[in-house]
Design a protein that fits this description.
By secondary structure, the chain is an alpha/beta fold. It has four domains: 127 residues, no CATH class; 43 residues, no CATH class; 138 residues; 112 residues, 3-Layer(aba) Sandwich (Rossmann fold). The protein contains 23 helices and eight strands. The longest helix is centred in the middle third of the chain and has 20 residues. The chain is globular. The structure holds iron/sulfur cluster (2 copies). The site of one iron/sulfur cluster (SF4) has 13 residues, from α2 and α5.
Length: 453
């Protein structure tokens, strides 16, 4: 029965909820979680509600896929859809969380209890457990291992970057691995972020505020460390300039977000085991934690705490993990951020990544950049279409382009001198789709430039 029919019944559940949304823990260690029959029943229940609602039709390709299945079924209702096709909807979801955070009126505590992203996560986990996940997807989500392989020996990074730019090589990659020949692939750097900043630690006396300790540990992230290592210089220079003691987390692995998106929850648990004790120890020593990629921050702020609700160390890390501009804004509110700048940034098109939006912290990056005189920031709050590994897979590439094109068009239309996104992957995707020649920059790079550092 569709939700429309349900809502017309006397005594039917009310539309929306008056109470603040809550999120249930992810029950991934219970046998029910992996019960294929129970999963199918839950997919049917939630898909039927979504069919009656359809608010999320323009968010991603998962909802149009679901609604097409219904609209092309003989009954024009969910009961006419072949259940073996449910997985097509699941495969289109890249767990951006936007449907839960920005659209859905039926999230808990509403009695319909709809958590679409975490239902997709459960379906991905069941698929992974059944061994139905492609080798390509396991390979692409092994970000740490692949990057280590490419960057450990000098020159291997240069060779890989060179071959990744050759059309014949890309055609072979597409045929053998299913990586689309036009997709943007990351470039690798032997001189990693961790190597670059190793000698830049300065001992600064921390000045604490009510909400910050004034002493941060940077979780470099896979992308920051191997693919965008200059970010280390930007972060160290800006934080030190503002009197904040900054050093690297002594050792780290991938945060686990790519494996979460794959449904490999045991791998996520291994990432937890590797990272959380180290981070918790840093927090005990007075450090706050930051990371340059919103998805990795979200992993520690939201997904790990929901997977391990009883784990005191995970909850401790959640409480001291900050988006970097959220951190700078807290320092600014305490009067501790320097606001003398050496140069204006001009007009900036600023893409707000989904995994930043769902942190519910407002547009702190925009607000900090706008402290720079002679700077106007135009925020673009739409999905870039990159979405982890979604945009590089042959079968999803066209859909990813369709999702990201409106952002690129906005960047083209704005014709601003600069373009930035907190997510370096989203930034390169938008720059790739834009017709104008735009350089993708991280906002921390822009802030360093504005300070003249
Ligand atoms: S989590 Fe994101 S990708 Fe998944 S269904 Fe919701 S909006 Fe679409
Ligand atoms: S996730 Fe919620 S808002 Fe989106 S289509 Fe389903 S019921 Fe509607």
């Amino acid at each position: 029965m569709s939700s429309e029919k349900l809502s017309m019944r006397e005594g039917a559940p009310r539309e929306g909820s008056l109470e603040a949304p809550t999120r249930h823990p992810i029950d991934w260690q219970s046998p029910d979680f992996y019960d294929a029959h129970k999963l199918e029943q839950e997919l049917e229940r939630v898909f039927d509600i979504c069919h009656g609602c359809r608010r999320c039709v323009n968010l991603c390709n998962a909802f149009p896929t679901l609604f097409d299945l219904v609209d092309e079924s003989p009954t024009l209702e969910l009961d006419g859809v072949d259940k073996t096709h449910f997985i097509k909807v699941v495969d289109e979801c890249y767990l951006c969380d936007m449907c839960y955070m920005s659209k859905c009126p039926y999230v808990p505590p509403h009695e319909w209890n709809v958590d679409f992203p975490h239902l997709m996560l459960r379906a991905k986990a069941v698929k992974f457990k059944k061994g139905e996940t492609l080798f390509r997807d396991r390979f692409l989500t092994s970000t740490d291992a692949v990057a280590k392989m490419i960057t450990t020996i000098p020159m291997v990074d240069a060779v890989v970057n060179h071959f990744n730019a050759q059309p014949p090589v890309r055609n072979v990659l597409e045929k053998t691995l299913g990586v689309h020949h036009d997709a943007v692939l990351p470039t690798y750097h032997h001189n990693t972020l961790r190597k670059r900043v190793a000698g830049q630690v300065k001992s600064l006396t921390p000045v604490p505020t009510e909400q910050t300790s004034g002493k941060v540990a940077l979780f470099a992230t896979c992308y920051g460390n191997y693919n965008s290592p200059h970010l280390g210089d930007d972060f160290f220079k800006v934080f030190q300039h503002n009197g904040i003691h900054i050093e690297l987390v002594p050792q780290e692995q991938c945060c686990g977000m790519p494996k979460l998106e794959l449904g490999d929850l045991e791998a996520v648990a291994r990432a937890r085991d590797a990272n959380i004790p180290v981070l918790a120890e840093m927090i005990d020593a007075g450090y706050d934690i930051i990371a340059p990629v919103p998805s990795c921050v979200l992993m520690f702020k939201q997904e790990l705490p929901l997977m391990f609700p009883q784990d005191a160390q995970v909850q401790k890390v959640k409480s001291r993990m900050f988006d970097p501009f959220e951190y700078l804004m807290l320092r600014h509110k305490a009067g501790l951020l320097k606001t003398e700048f050496a140069q204006p940034l001009g007009d900036v098109s600023y893409h707000v990544a989904c995994h930043l939006r769902v942190q519910n912290i407002g547009l702190k990056t925009r607000d900090i950049l706008q402290l720079v005189p002679g700077t106007q920031v135009q925020a673009i709050e739409r999905c870039s279409g990159h979405d982890g590994t979604y945009a590089v897979k042959t079968e999803f590439y066209e859909a990813a382009i369709k999702i990201g094109r409106p952002v690129a068009k906005k960047v083209d239309d704005n014709a601003n001198s600069r373009f930035a996104s907190d997510c370096p992957m989203a930034a390169t995707q938008v720059a790739h789709l834009a017709k104008r020649d735009v350089a993708a920059e991280h906002p921390m790079t822009l802030l360093r430039i504005a300070y003249g550092l």
